[in-house]
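Dear Dr. L.,

I hope this message finds you well. Following up on our conversation about the binding site, I have prepared a predicted three-dimensional model of the protein together with TLP. For your records, I am including the exact sequence and ligand specification that went into the calculation, followed by the structure tokens. Please feel free to forward this to your student if that is useful.
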Amino acid sequence: MDIIDLRSDTVTQPTPAMREAMAKAIVGDDVYGEDPTVNRLQEIASELTGKEAALYVVSGTMGNVAATLAHTQRGDEMICGLKSHIYRNEQGAMAALAGVQARPLEEEYDGTLDIQKIESAIQISDDHHPITRVVAIENSHNICGGVPISPAYIESLGKLTLQYGLRLHLDGARLFNAAAALGVSAKDLVGPADSVSICLSKGLCAPVGSVLCGDAEFIHRARRARKVLGGGMRQAGVLAAAGIIALTDMPARLVVDHQNATLLAKSLAALPGISLERNSASTNMVYFQLDEDVAYSGHEVSSSLKQEGVLLDLVSTRGFRAVTHYEINSDMIEHTVQVLNQVIAS
Ligand code: TLP
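The resulting structure of the complex is given below.
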């Protein structure tokens, strides 16, 4: 049975072109900075983001943690979204590893953090208070529906962080999805950010890694942080070779994933028993709930779907996420909807 795996875009396999590039990659010891393929990947990442320098890291989580370590000192505070990956999905790394306290704010409907609420959350100078050091936002915002956040918002936020001398970190795990959805370049979305982390191993299909971008001094500190986190890799060019293809060839096709997400959302909206969540299909994600009149629990629906070869991400007792990606086509979407309809109506 062919599996239709919509749990995440992280499940994508390296493309044939990536495997070929990986086999042929010229490599060196990257802890000495001597891997030409890693160096090339980092150059491409800094060109694409308009930042001075870049660092190849093991994962999106490591990108966020290394950025936190590079921007902060113990006891500092980071303003971030209540539903952000950096706050919810990284085992409290900012506290556990960087000694940083989160100041989580609830996201608005569109995945942004209200600028006035951020301004009110900035600590005034007082010996009782931690020092507010960083504001972190996510683009696209995963849990808010994969919603892309506009360059205009990021510019306004950048003005605020500049005014208060704060660092702006952008978790751009799916930055290229946001750029594709908004019809802008990656550079347009990162203008005022002091750091941006971009995953190569999600919709862009590389097997491993993220790139963290920022100015040279920040990257110098992030490089030290990467080492203490155990992320100093040696002949990492075999992996970076796939990352180069991820950054150069793969962003252009993300619109196809977004079209498939739209197809899925439209078909699900027409199914009795299903309610779509906010911002569904604004990029490559569709979140939905089982209505109360559906007799089955999320677990039951999930395991019935699995028996039919359809994998969805169960995100709450009755809530699901489906993520479209390179290995999903429109026939698979139609099949998924048919199977889901049968499962909930049986
Ligand atoms: N997201 C994964 C899971 O961890 C939830 C997924 O399937 O969506 N930032 C954002 C916005 C992310 O969505 C993720 C991964 C990360 C960072 C972390 O990336 P990795 O998994 O490479 O550490």
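In brief: The longest strand covers residues 132-138.

With kind regards,
A. P.
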